[in-house]
Hints:
A four-stranded antiparallel sheet has the order 1-2-3-4, sandwiched between helices. It contains four helices and eight strands. The chain is flat, with a radius of gyration of 18 Å. Helix 3 runs parallel beside helix 4. By secondary structure, the protein is of the alpha+beta class. Strand 1 and strand 2 form a beta hairpin. It folds into two domains: 10-79, Double Stranded RNA Binding Domain, CATH 3.30.160; 81-154, 2-Layer Sandwich (Ribosomal Protein S5, domain 2), CATH 3.30.230.
Amino acid sequence: MRPPxxxxxxxxxxxxxxxxxxxxxxxxxxxxKGGRRMRFRALVVVGNRDGKVGVGVAKASEVQLxxxxxxxxxxxxxxxVDLTAARSIAHEVQATYGSSTVLLKPAGIGTSLxxxxxxxxxxxxxxxxxxxxxxxxxxNKMNVVMATLAALxxxxxx
Length: 158
């Protein structure tokens, strides 16, 4: 029997809707009467490389559970970004989160993605291929990721 016309192909079934990257996993400790309680905090970025990206932060007693919770939180808080034909951003933008400031500038075709570690993960998962970025102030990974997301949320098209 033949599958229906609108049924997804084998490749489409395997490929997930969103890709995810774990940017940071921290061990956090709470001191209680009986000693120390260890937990883990995960910072996860999800995106479809076509204009949608989200960031999630979650804590759990195990690393894998923290990553799953952060991934689910990121999928609930997606930001849509309009990209240009050159797979770049429409205009220059700057955003601050905490003491971290991120500056994003559009770039021509062939420039590629010039960004630091945690800002690069957000920009690559949103689908930006040609952009110049500079991280100013604190280089705290969580603040840089959030500042990059805030900068992308500020973008407007003509």
